[in-house]
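Recap for those who missed Tuesday's class. We walked through two folding examples back to back. For each one, the amino acid string is listed first and its predicted structure tokens come directly after. Nothing is annotated here on purpose, so try labeling regions yourself before you check the end of the notes.
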Amino acid sequence: MTDHDAIVFRSADPFADVTGLSTSDTGASAQRSSNIIHIRIQQRNGKKTLTTVQGIGDEFDKKRLLREFKKQFACNGTVVEHQEYGEVIQLQGDQRTNVSQFLKKIGICQDDQVKVHGF
């Protein structure tokens, strides 16, 4: 098996850009990246997608936020415990723009604190 084959068959890590700090990065940039809220989309079966929200501070109740997301966006979702990133909110469907606008509207973050990932 060549190196190219290993790259093709390796599953994509949706959180790879958070941990991909170079050796020249300082502690200040790592501190800054923890303040950024990452909103990602993942492809499921066929047309089905999953939106994940990672990086919301511990001072916010994620279950309460999830309840509002579900009510506002008419979708289902859950809060999962990730071993490296803590609690991550998962929503059904492509809710990237809805979530980013909602978080800005209620004042949890500013424009420069939200990073939307996707296709």
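Example two. Treat it independently of the first, because the proteins are unrelated.
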Amino acid sequence: MLWQWPQPGDLEPGQTFTIPDDVFVTPDGKSLIATQEDDFVITEIDIATRKIVWRYGTPGAHGSGPNQLWNPDDAMKLPDGSVVAADIKNCRLVDLVPSSPGPVWSLGTLGSCAHEPPARFGSPNGVFPLPNGHFLVTEINGAWVDEIDRSGHVYWAVHVPGTTYPSDASEVRPGQYVAADYTNPGQVVVFDQSGRALWRWNPTSGEGRLNHPSLAEGLPNGDILLNDDANHRVIVLDPRQNRIVWQYGHTGVAGRAPGYLNTPDGLDPVPPHSFATVMGLTRPTPGSW
């Protein structure tokens, strides 16, 4: 373990950091954007100073007014400095900046979670940027994934094939996307814009069985990095060999000692391979599925 936060003295008097969920590295590699889904807060942490430098949301109090969120998910800083996130129980997508007390951009209808983009979204749990400047939105209700732009134009929308609780879909290579299925046994699916499954990892027994995986992300060599939440591990899958090629954590055993994890629910490689860093680049195509 190379770095961990918070440690004694990192939080200012009155500050809290509870129930962290997903975390992404900022494009400049200097900060982390941590989403505290069940504490209704998004927090930016400066890696060098170990201090909170920005926060949106009211800790412990959900809502939809100024400085309020309701189960935000997958907050990520874009190259322009704004932070985009899915606001699950507010049924909307938001873009936030430090200078504004409310979203500078949003899509969806407050309190109306149904699949009818861009007017409504069915409990959106991911809004990931694409290299073309659009966004990939994952909707829990109905297992939908949509490609949209900031104006709300919908380019395509498909059911994630064979899933019941899709989580955090993102692009792994041009025109191909990956999503985790947050179930037990869980699965990972690579699919295209027609909704056709190109590759699937879904063992129902043995060491490969997943238990509520929540985030899968493509790596430059074509492998897939995955947090397997309830199995308390992070793994790398090789789709060409159809096997696990790396693991951190002890399967099914939660812990805090070196080599152990406890319900990991978010991950991101550090630059130059972090998601925000490579999203503007064309990913390599290291072979077929």
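Answers for example two:
The helical segments are 275-278.
The radius of gyration is 18 Å.
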